[in-house]
Design goal:
The complex is a heterodimer of chains A (512) and B (288).
Chain A (H helix, E strand, L loop, with lengths): L14 E2 L3 E2 L25 E3 L2 H8 L6 E4 L9 H11 L5 E5 L5 H11 L3 E6 L6 H6 L7 E3 L2 H10 L6 E6 L1 E3 L4 E2 L11 H9 L2 E6 L2 E2 L16 E4 L20 H17 L8 E3 L3 H17 L3 E8 L1 H8 L3 E9 L2 H9 L3 E3 L2 H5 L13 E4 L3 E3 L4 E2 L15 H7 L2 E5 L3 E2 L2 E2 L1 E2 L14 E4 L2 E4 L4 H9 L7 H12 L11 E6 L5 E6 L2
Helix pairs in contact in A: 2-3, 5-6, 7-8
Chain B lengths: L2 E6 L3 H6 L7 E5 L9 H22 L4 E5 L8 H10 L4 E4 L5 H17 L8 E6 L2 H5 L1 H5 L5 E6 L1 H7 L12 H13 L3 E4 L8 H13 L4 E4 L5 H7 L4 H15 L5 E3 L2 E3 L1 H18 L1
Parallel strand pairs in B: 1-2, 1-8, 2-3, 3-4, 4-5, 5-6, 6-7, 7-8
Antiparallel strand pairs in B: 9-10
The chains are: A alpha/beta (512), B alpha/beta (288).
Chain lengths: 512, 288
């Protein structure tokens, strides 16, 4: 199936202050695999230091450098806050924060660091309140750069965003300085996002609250040869808070309806067959689809190939029941999946590059058959916004959506037709995060629309008894319920840049 | 009409999506689920939302019926409820605690007036009568036969049990009598009979058993108080695959023959054909 070229015309400046020259986005049919994902660093000998401050001093961290964090502890992370607090106390200024995402208490900590001039730029896949409102209001002089998980891995590996010091939380460290996410009192599972940072950062500071003896039972996530300094703190966070946020399983009857319609679409499409590879994003409906899919596979006696991405307890249970052969885990979403990574042979850790870097030769996202995505908005060209609301406020994240949407054979967006009286299908989304050319189906509780460029899929679904609407009809029908929104004009300063996975500029988020 | 989902008329987010959840009908409730202080507020909300809900339902779930349960005739609210619902497009009213044909006639008179004033086709507003007291149960047929507006009789088990000073148990054969009486009265008047809601939300096995029993007693459907009950009720009140196959064979045999036929050793006469047609009618209702 040829990829589609539908995309709204955007005026992207050739140069953006605080970002530099831009490359305009264009559709890509093929990414040529490259070797640059391999680290060129020499072996290191990790040493313990007494405090975060000592590690920073020994790292020779200076004003204007770039530091990185991962967000595997999600809502329970305390490392970002601890490190930024020390950096602020040391008077270090003007740092660029390169993070896999900012969530939970880290958002307030980053905001405080911006106010103290410690941080002056952010590169991330997502961020939340109260940081998001401050960004929208212009607290930073330079636009936030949003990259997908694959795009971030690519940017680090290509040297587009060189990391000077990576601060990596580990749930345990052994005497050789190897880092684990599956041992210790605050185990959080996969360290997939951190692995890329460890391989490519100039200096790696590992922070833990548990030292363990080296064990043959569990492989370390990051070898000690990539670690410079090791710091022990009383607590890296509270892993019991990991599975909050967008990972709660929805009990909403409307969401259950959307999920069940999505299953009908998957079945009618013919994608659910022996050996199929599957991923769903976070978000209540997406997670429900996985749960319902498990029941369907069990009933039909179908075993999939792999499930990938963020791994949940539901996916672990499905693998235990041999409904999937393997799990590829870039991020464990809950305690059960974190423990599973340590003990189950079917459960594999993967780094963010292997997961979604467009140039990785074995990119897992490119091997997907089915991808279920959530979104904040969709438009008539099937473009997806997963970062901002209709009013332009930042409320979500890119995550791996652009990577998996490009790579998967079937991409289904599950979305209620309105939230809190605000419709979700619009003539144009506020911010293009995943281009519509990579999206096949939109499933709402009021109807299902197939991208007109997928006539093959449309026919298969209709032959399978699925009633389809046009995306225009879905939008207009929803407007009859909610009224047509009065869209805010946003022509002010550029607050954020959405990079496509290959580094081109996909869209701009502007302030008032 | 197998399942009727009750939805309190004071929660817009639930109300707007209630018709999508798989029930054959939705009943927006102004009565028991709305506190006395919220009666006016809920009525106003429902009146403002009903045109949108009816339009939405007609577009995306055209087979789903929308009804409103108004407050009882012994309250000060029922006339206001009726006027608000009818003038905002509601065409099916559930009247609680009906005890005799006089109650229906009282509502009928006001509906005649509202239809005339609103230039609404005469008789276009239908009624469901809920029989919830021993007196109402005893008057089942006279109620069912009291107005051409009547489309169904419903059973209210909680009030009935309270009147008999018995608790509503998960298994209760004492409810067979009112169900049978209602089912027979409804059949005599050629209208539907709906069973009471199952209040034990977590007990899906109990709901399944009660649905099957109600159907065997002649009920056509049952009320639901939670979306999770809908599929169980629909299943309990649907014709089985075997019944549908048999009905198809009967219709097919009839089409191929000019006279009386037999099928699998059974004589196929008028009542059997009527049953087969009823099976198809019930499927067709949902497949429109």
């Amino acid at each position: 199936m040829p990829r589609r070229t539908d995309y709204r015309k955007l005026k992207i400046p050739s140069n953006i202050a605080g970002y530099g020259p831009t490359v305009a986005w264009k559709e890509v049919d093929h990414y040529e695999p490259t070797e640059f994902h391999l680290s060129k660093r020499t072996q290191k000998h990790p040493q313990k230091v007494a405090s975060i401050q000592e590690a920073i001093e020994r790292s020779h961290l200076k004003d204007g450098m770039r530091i990185s964090f991962h967000h595997h502890l999600r809502m329970g992370d305390l490392v970002v806050a601890k490190v930024l607090e020390v950096l602020t106390a040391m008077g270090i200024k003007d740092l660029t924060l390169c993070v896999s995402s900012v969530m939970g208490p880290a958002c307030s900590a980053v905001l405080d660091a911006i106010k103290a001039k410690t941080v002056s730029a952010i590169e991330t896949t997502g961020l939340k309140e109260p940081l998001s409102s401050a960004i929208s209001e212009g607290i930073l002089d330079t636009p936030v750069v949003f990259r997908s998980h694959g795009g971030r891995a690519r940017a680090i590996e290509m040297g587009q965003t060189p990391i000077d010091v990576a601060f990596l939380a580990a749930s345990a460290i052994d005497e050789e300085g190897n880092l684990y996410g599956t041992l210790g009192k605050n185990l959080f599972g996969s360290m997939g996002y951190a692995q890329v940072d460890a391989l490519h950062a100039q200096t790696v500071v590992a922070i833990t609250d548990a030292f363990v003896e080296k064990t043959d039972q569990t492989f370390p996530s990051i070898s000690g040869e990539f670690v410079d300094w090791i710091v022990t703190v009383p607590a890296i966070g509270d892993a019991s808070l990991m599975s909050g946020g967008s990972l709660s399983l929805s009990k909403s009857p409307t969401n259950q309806l959307i999920a069940s319609l999505a299953i009908e679409v998957l079945v009618a499409s013919g994608a659910i067959k022996r050996g199929f590879n599957y991923q769903s994003g976070s978000g209540g409906v997406s997670l429900l689809v996985s749960t319902m899919l498990g029941s369907y596979l069990k009933e039909q006696g179908i075993a999939g190939g792999f499930a990938s991405g963020g791994i949940t307890a539901a996916l672990v249970e499905m693998a235990q029941q041999r409904l999937f052969e393997r799990l590829w885990d870039v991020q464990s979403f809950d305690a059960q999946s974190a423990r599973s990574l340590a003990i189950n042979a079917f459960h594999h850790e993967m780094d963010a590059s292997m997961y979604a870097n467009p140039y990785h030769p074995n990119c897992i996202a490119h091997q997907l058959d089915v991808m279920i995505l959530s979104a904040t908005e969709v438009d008539l060209s099937f473009n997806i916004n997963s970062v901002s609301g209709t009013n332009g406020r930042i409320i979500g994240a890119l995550g791996g959506a652009p990577d998996t949407a490009w790579g998967s054979k079937l991409v289904v967006v599950v979305i209620p037709s309105f939230r809190n009286r605000i419709p979700t299908i619009h003539p144009q989304v506020n911010l293009v995060c995943t281009p519509g050319c990579d999206v096949d189906v939109v499933v709402t509780e009021r109807g299902i629309a197939v991208n007109p460029r997928r006539q093959d899929l449309m026919k298969r679904l209709q032959d399978g008894g699925i009633s389809l609407s046009s995306i225009e009809d879905l939008m207009n029908h929803t407007f009859q319920i909610t009224g047509r929104p009065n869209y805010p004009q946003r022509e002010g300063p550029i607050r954020a840049i959405v990079e496509s996975r290959d580094g081109a500029v996909l869209d701009l988020l502007r302030g008032k | 009409m197998r399942s009727w989902l009750y939805t309190p008329a004071n929660t817009p987010s639930r109300m707007i999506n209630a018709p999508l959840l798989g029930a054959d009908g939705v009943v927006f409730d102004l009565e028991d689920s709305i506190s006395e202080e919220q009666k006016d507020e809920a009525r106003l909300l429902l009146a403002s939302m009903l045109p949108t809900i009816l339009l939405d339902t007609a577009t995306v779930r055209p087979h789903v019926q929308i009804a409103v349960r108004i407050n009882g005739l012994d309250t000060k609210h029922w006339q206001d409820d009726l006027e608000a619902v009818v003038t905002s497009g509601g065409r099916l009213i559930r009247i609680p605690k009906v005890e005799g044909p006089g109650d229906i006639k009282e509502v009928d008179a006001l509906l005649n007036h509202l239809e005339k004033e609103g230039q609404i086709a005469e008789g276009s507003v239908g009624l469901h009568a809920l029989l919830e007291t021993p007196r109402g149960i005893e008057a089942a047929f006279t109620i069912a036969d009291s107005s051409s507006r009547l489309q169904g009789l419903g059973f209210g088990a909680e009030d009935y049990c309270a009147a008999l000073r018995i608790g509503r148990a998960t298994e209760s054969s004492v409810l067979d009598y009112p169900r049978t009486r209602i089912a027979n009265a409804a059949a005599a008047a050629a209208i539907h009979a709906f069973d009471a809601a199952w209040g034990f939300i977590e007990d899906s096995e109990g709901l399944k058993a009660e649905s099957q029993r109600s159907r065997r007693l002649g009920m056509h459907g049952k009320s639901a108080i939670h979306p999770s009950q809908i599929a169980i009720i629909n299943d309990g009140f649907s014709f089985s695959k075997e019944e549908i196959t048999y009905a198809k064979k009967i219709i097919s045999a009839m089409e191929d023959s000019a006279g009386v036929v037999s099928l699998d050793g059974r004589m196929i006469d008028r009542p059997v054909i009527a049953w087969a047609r009823a099976v198809f009618a019930s499927i067709g209702e949902r497949e429109i």
